[in-house]
Design brief:
This protein is 40% helix and 23% strand. It is α+β, with helices and mostly antiparallel strands. α10 crosses α11.
C-alpha cells in the first residue's frame, strides 16, 4: 500500500470569508483582527502585511487597509463544511482551524489518479462554500503541507518520492516544518541556512542545541515524518485577554472582567475535551509596566470554580501599585486531554476514601452543571447566563469602558481588544 497524504488549506481564511459576506471588500486589502492581524487578504499581503503584525504598523504600510472585526462562529461554520466534504473523500481526516489532513493511503482503486480526484474535491469546496483551497499531495504530512505552500493560492501541488531529495537539499531552513523564528535565529547564527547544511549535524548535536524539537528536525530534514493522521491538536496554552479603552482602577470591575475571561477560557477547554494544570494572570498598567504571575493548580481541571479562585488570588497579589490597568488577561497552560478514567489509590484509609468519594460526587455535580451552562450559552450566547460578580461589567458608569451588551452573537466586550 502506497502511503499518500492530502493537505487541504483554506486561502486567507478569515479575510476570504469576510470578502464573501461583503462583496464590497472583494479585491480590496482586508485585515481581520483586533490589535493584531489574525488574517489578511492576498491584496493586503502585497504590501508586506502578515498575520501577527500590529494593526498600527499595518496601517502605516497600507493606508487603504480595511480592518474587520472577526466573527468566530461564522468561520467555524465554513470550516465545518470543508471538513464534511473531506470526510466523504477520505476514510480518515484530521481537522484543524482552517486546514485538514486526509489519509488517502490504500485508495488506489477509488482514485487511480489522485491529482484529478483532489481537483474535483477543490471544485466541490468552491461550489459549496465559495472559498478557494490549496491542496498538497505527498507521502507524509510534511511533504503534503510543504508542496502545498509552493502552490498558494488556489493551487494543487504533488511530489513524488523520487523528487523529495532534490526539494529538501535546496530548501531554506525557515521553510522546514517545525522551524520557527527563534529556531531559525539559532541555526543562522551557526551558519546553517539550508536543509542540506542542517543534515551535517548529528542527532545528539541537534538535540543538545534545540532539545526535543532538535531530534524531530533531525528526521524532518531527511524527509521523515511519522505522525499519524487523526491525532488531536492540543494547544500549549489557551489565552483570553482584553485592553480597555480607558484605564481601569476599580478592583470590583477588574475582578469581574477577569472572571469573565476565565469563564471564556474554561469553556474553550471543555469544548475541546481538555484540562489545564497551570494558570497565569498578566496585566499591563497605564504606565506600560507589565506584570505576570503564575501558579500550578492542585489538580488538572476544566471547571470554572478552581480556575476562578486561582486567577483572583493572583490578581489580588499583584494589586500593590496605585496605578490603573490598561490590560488584563488569563493564560491556561500545561494542557492535556481529559483522561477517560482516573487511576484510583490502591491503599487508602476509610477517611481518605470518604473524602475522595465526597469530592468525586461534588466534581461530577459541578461537571454536569457546566455541561448545561455551556449548552445554554452555545444556543443563546455567553450573556444568557452570567455570574453575579460579572454583573459589575453591566453596571459601569459613563467613565468606564468595560460595559457589555448583547447582540445576536451573544455577549460582546466594548473594549479595544479581546484576543486569544
Amino acid at each position: 500500500m502506497r502511503p499518500l497524504v492530502l493537505h487541504v488549506d483554506i486561502d486567507a481564511f478569515f479575510a476570504s470569508v469576510e470578502q464573501l459576506r461583503n462583496p464590497r471588500l472583494v479585491n480590496q486589502p482586508v485585515a481581520v483582527g483586533s490589535g493584531v492581524i489574525a488574517s489578511c487578504s492576498y491584496e493586503a499581503r502585497q504590501h508586506g502585511l502578515r498575520a501577527g503584525m500590529p494593526l498600527g504598523k499595518a496601517l502605516r504600510r497600507c493606508p487603504a487597509l480595511i480592518i474587520v472585526r472577526g466573527h468566530e462562529a461564522v468561520y467555524r461554520c465554513y470550516a465545518s463544511r470543508l471538513f464534511e466534504i473531506c470526510q466523504r473523500w477520505s476514510p480518515l481526516i484530521e481537522e484543524h482551524l482552517d486546514e485538514a489532513y486526509c489519509d488517502l493511503s490504500g485508495t488506489e482503486r477509488l482514485y487511480p489518479q489522485p491529482a484529478k480526484a483532489v481537483t474535483r474535491l477543490r471544485e466541490e469546496v468552491k461550489k459549496s462554500t465559495g472559498l478557494t483551497v490549496t491542496a498538497g499531495l505527498g507521502r507524509n504530512r510534511m511533504f503534503a503541507r510543504l508542496i502545498g505552500k509552493f502552490h498558494k493560492p488556489d493551487g494543487l501541488g504533488s511530489i513524488e518520492p523520487e523528487q523529495e531529495e532534490a526539494l529538501l537539499k535546496k530548501l531554506p531552513v525557515a521553510q522546514l516544518p517545525g522551524v520557527g523564528p527563534r529556531t531559525e535565529q539559532i541555526l543562522v547564527r551557526l551558519g546553517i541556512e539550508t536543509v542540506e547544511q542542517m543534515r551535517q549535524l548529528s542527532r545528539p548535536a541537534l538535540g543538545a542545541l534545540l532539545g526535543r524539537n532538535g531530534e524531530i528536525l533531525y528526521e524532518r530534514c531527511r524527509g521523515e515524518d511519522h505522525r499519524s493522521i487523526g491525532g488531536r491538536e492540543i494547544p500549549r496554552t489557551i489565552q483570553r485577554g482584553t485592553s480597555f479603552d480607558e484605564d481601569v482602577s476599580c478592583p470590583r470591575t477588574l475582578e469581574a472582567m477577569l472572571e469573565y475571561l476565565c469563564e471564556r477560557a474554561a469553556r474553550n477547554l471543555r469544548q475541546r475535551g481538555l484540562e489545564a494544570r497551570g494558570i497565569a494572570v498578566q496585566v499591563v498598567y497605564s504606565d506600560h509596566v507589565r506584570d505576570r504571575r503564575r501558579i500550578a493548580l492542585d489538580r488538572p481541571t476544566c471547571l470554572d470554580p478552581p480556575i476562578l479562585e486561582a486567577a483572583l488570588m493572583l490578581l489580588r497579589s499583584m494589586q500593590n501599585r496605585r496605578t490603573a490597568l490598561h490590560f488584563v488577561g488569563v493564560v491556561l497552560d500545561r494542557i492535556r486531554a481529559i483522561a477517560p478514567a482516573q487511576q484510583g489509590v490502591l491503599f487508602e484509609t476509610a477517611r481518605e476514601s470518604s473524602e475522595a468519594n465526597g469530592s468525586g460526587r461534588e466534581h461530577e455535580r459541578c461537571k454536569r452543571l457546566f455541561e448545561q451552562v455551556d449548552r445554554i450559552r452555545a444556543r443563546h450566547g455567553h450573556g444568557a447566563l452570567l455570574r453575579g460578580s460579572t454583573l459589575a461589567l453591566l453596571q459601569g458608569d459613563s467613565s468606564t469602558a468595560t460595559k457589555l451588551h448583547r447582540d445576536r452573537h451573544g455577549l460582546v466586550l466594548r473594549s479595544s481588544c479581546l484576543t486569544r
